[in-house]
Design goal:
heterotrimer, A alpha/beta (about 250), B alpha/beta (about 325), C mainly alpha (about 280), B: about 325 residues, alpha/beta, Rossmann fold, 2 domains, 6-stranded parallel beta sheet, C: about 280 residues, mainly alpha, ABC transporter involved in vitamin B12 uptake, BtuC, two-stranded antiparallel ribbon, 11 helices, about 0% strand, globular
Amino acid sequence: MLKLNNIDVWFGSNHVLRNLSCDVEPGDFIVIVGANGQGKSTLFDTIAGKVMPTSGTITIDDVDVTNLDERERASMITRIFQNTQLNSVGTLTVHQNLAMAHYSRRSARFGDGMKAMPRERAEYLITSIGMDGEVLDKPMNALSGGQRQLIAFVMATQMIPKVLLLDEPTAALDPHSATLLLQYSAQFIRRHKVTTLLITHDPHIALSIGNKVWILEDGKISKQFNAEEKKTLNPDKLIGQIDYESLMI
Amino acid sequence: MNKNVILIGVLGACIAGFILFKQMQTPAVNAAYTIGILQTASHPALDATREGFMNELKALMGDEVAFVVQNAEGSITNVHTIAHQFHGKSQYAGFFAIATPAAQSLGTIEKERPIFIAAVSDPDSLGLGCSKANVCGTKDMIDVHAGIDLLMQLVPHAKKIGLLYSSGETNSAVLVQKMREDLEPRGLSVAEFAMSNEADMQAMVESACHKVDVLLAPTDNMIGSAASAIAAIALKHKKPFIVSDNMLVKEGALAAHGVDYKAGGKRAAQIAHEVLVGGKKPYELPIERIQDDAIFINQKTLDTLGLSIPESLKERIVIVS
Amino acid sequence: MIELLHIVQGIVERGLIFGIVVAAVYIASRLINFDNLAVEGSFGLGGALSAVLIAGGFNPWLALLCAALVGIASGIVTACLNTKLQLNNLISGIVVTTGLFSITLKTAGSNMSLSGKTTMFNTMPSWLAPYQSLAVLIVVCMLIFTLIDWLLTTEIGFLLRAVGDTPQMLTNVGKSIDRYIMLGIALSNMLAAMSGALFVQYTGYFSIWASLGILIIGLAGMIIAETFSPSFGISLIAGSIAYQTIIAMTFELQLNQDWNKLITAVLIVLLIVIKQWLYKK
């Protein structure tokens, strides 16, 4: 349902995405891996509309969205950034942020800003990710990175998007928060059959979540593995790993 | 208790105590008349006005008069703050307002005690000279015709006149218009040069010197402040610079048949004396012009420009070097 | 004692008028993260327009409303320079203030007297007159602050608060960053213009020089206000009043006038230091 056709993206003289084409089927949960600098975030930027391709088209459910900007695509695409500060407003409280998540897909009103998120519902949402209701009145920037990212996920999933883009969502998190986030995501995606793309550096996550794995290399999707083929992949060889031996004194 | 409340309480008490303390130490307790002087800004013309007033009133009343001088440094907000605070001082017998904003603010706030004004160009347009007002004093409205007569006599070959003024100045634009109306029928062409702040002055004057034969300025505070610099540039280009404030001739301008601010302050003091001691009411005394017959000429500038003083003016000339 | 009350009244009145400028600066700098240098120009134009209307016999409250409208227009221009023509925030404000100087001059000349005209501050019978300015200003400020406070609790208000902190969030929920910047800056300039209109009626005349230094008054008031509370509210007026108190004290000291500005500077530092010291305890 998400098709990229012959997408070319240049940054100055750098040809980042080269004639990239791919087809995401409805309900797919695709993990995208690749070395740094290969263009993974740029791919997401292009799909979301932050970056415009120099040539090629993007369609969602057969609707051409290539000429829509990021804001216009926001009603169809939800993106969670790696930098958690971009996913919520630091100076507003958790409760206010949760309310703001409901302003999508309609115009903002002069009514009470919190009306969209009654207290009980907010408390329910917070406790379902394992946090205490007290946190609702704290400003977002007073929380830890892990807590903030988790709440960002809750915010992003208040509306059900056509495409969900998860850009290394657990990269800055400790293992416990990372697990919580991935569990929550998996549940949400499964329940609502959301078409999802996830970027990660972690080979174990890559192989344990989602139904397909794509490798992004040289600005293209060089290899695609479906659910069966995934099982044959060696996590250590997938992305490469830190050479621990060379670190020993 | 809330820390903010403590802070405000402590500060409030300090301030109140301080102000009460200050009130108990009023200066010159012996003086029968304390005059509050509100000077709009620091500026040679306004400083001269103040000096003229203070010296003359002191000479007339000796120890019976004391002065409190406050300077708003050009800020309208401060002018109004000082005026408001003056109004609250019931022991002051009267006020002296120097320049238009001071006169206006005091005029708005103080309706009973006399306000003496000086260095105000057009008091009537400000509604200050009306029938029941408590305002009197002097105005610095110039005689445009006389000033231009002087120009014609000193620089008979001039064809194009540059009028320098600042765009925000009360009455400068009006005076410039009057000058234009006087110059054009005489067959002279006129170009206007306006600056909105002192930083623009140099560029403007340089540009003017290339385009005109003579520079002419009305009474204008900003031009006055920059007068010596303007005179230097004009001299460099060998262009005569004629002003309307006699004091500026000393700064390097060629000549003036204009107003003497110190004399304006002095005359305002004499008027004040008539009101405070002589029992006159302010509205009985019309606001007077301060221009007199003397013509001021700067000898050095005159010589550098290669000009000479015509015979007919010789008796009225005051040479300044 | 009576004189003390009189001085305090003056301080509070000026504090209220400039408290509105402090609000203008706060909304622009803290909420929208867009330092609005057009505040001075809008203050001047608001004053000029209301002076012309009042001199012409119009209702002074109507004049205040017109000043508000002209302020909104200035704000929209400032924001458009930034969002549509990609001019830097500061330059947008500078350009607008510079241009507005000429427009203001053309509107009211360099000085316009309102002596004898009906303003918001001189309509009451004489026994009530000394308190009219204070009462009217309190009412106007309360109205303005209550309205803005309410606005900041609405959905639109939340988005306004977000656009300076995390503009990406607006995009995430499908809202236009440019539009909210415009709203915030229009609001800021509207307040500056209204303050100018009030000032002109308070002093009884319009002067082209009155708006010089308004930005500093707004900033100083805001910084002092933030030592009380970082959010929008009465603390902004308190900061403005505190700054006016310092200035009034400088004049009360009646020292050699040339030292006035230095004394003001020292008193500001003292205020902030005392506050920090009190909080360390």
